[in-house]
Write a structure and sequence with these properties.
Number of helices: 2
Structural class: mainly alpha
Number of strands: 0
Radius of gyration: 15 Å
Largest sheet: none
Length: 69
């Protein structure tokens, strides 16, 4: 994996968050690190990122707060 450096960056950010009492952020970064590892593994298998995600028409968000319909 040529982009695994991002995992190291996320670990560093998580350590900083924990050391500075940002525990919710540290927990979120743990989830983010796991997601990044999953996506990097998928990319190394040759799966395109666009192939895994449904297309959303321009001007619409895929979900969450601020979703436009």
């Amino acid at each position: 994996m040529q982009n695994e450096w991002i995992l190291d960056v996320l670990v560093d950010l998580q350590a900083f968050a924990r050391q500075n009492g940002l525990f919710a952020l540290a927990d979120q970064l743990d989830d983010t690190r796991l997601l990044a590892a999953l996506e990097l593994a998928r990319d190394s298998e040759g799966t395109q990122a666009d192939d895994r995600r449904p297309r959303v028409p321009a001007g619409q968000l895929s979900g969450g707060v601020g979703r436009r319909i």
